């Protein structure tokens, strides 16, 4: 019972931190990744830097950065270091597919524009300064906490499950 409670505390903290970092960075990818990096000692500052252009894949409305940050963490946790390690490829891609499926159940899609529509009732072109202003005015920094937090929580569950 105590172990399960500590698991829930870890997951609650991950969700909270990912949202906090999303607000701080203005980046769901970096917010999600940093929370997971800290909790599970994954990667380094260069790994976090690599996530800079990942929100909505370069703000195009494609894959949500929260998914990308979480998948980066799963790759660090389960991925291969040698070309011949096909079991690691299976572990990493299996975890990533589970993450995507659960995220889609929550937000209807893994695509940024669709997640935005789910949260805001519309999507924004984040490459257009006018839409960026509307996005900010729609309280994006608070509302985009949810995808970052949920992606971090799901990835955290998958990593914790592998440690059993």
Topology, pairings included?
Layout: H1 2-25, H2 28-40, H3 45-50, H4 56-59, H5 65-78, H6 86-107, H7 112-120, H8 129-137, H9 140-143, H10 145-162
Helix pairs in contact: 1-2, 1-10, 2-5, 2-10, 5-6, 5-10, 6-10
What would you note in describing this structure?
The protein has helices spanning 2-25, 28-40, 45-50, 56-59, 65-78, 86-107, 112-120, 129-137, 140-143, 145-162. With 164 residues, it is mostly helical. It has one domain. The protein is globular, with a radius of gyration of 15 Å.
Question: How many domain regions?
Answer: 1
Stretches where pLDDT is under 50 for at least 5 consecutive residues are none
How would you characterize the largest beta sheet? none
Measure the end-to-end span. 15 Å
Principal-axis shape: globular
Mean pLDDT: 95
Helix content: over 70%
> What is the H-and-E element order?
HHHHHHHHHH
Beta-strand fraction estimate: under 5%
Number of strands: 0
- CA radius of gyration is 15 Å
Given helix and strand content, the structural type is mainly alpha
Count of helical segments?
10
Task: Provide keyphrases for this structure.
164 residues; mainly alpha; 10 helices; globular
Offer a concise description of the structure.
The chain is mainly alpha-helical and 164 residues long. Helices cover 75% and strands 0% of the residues.
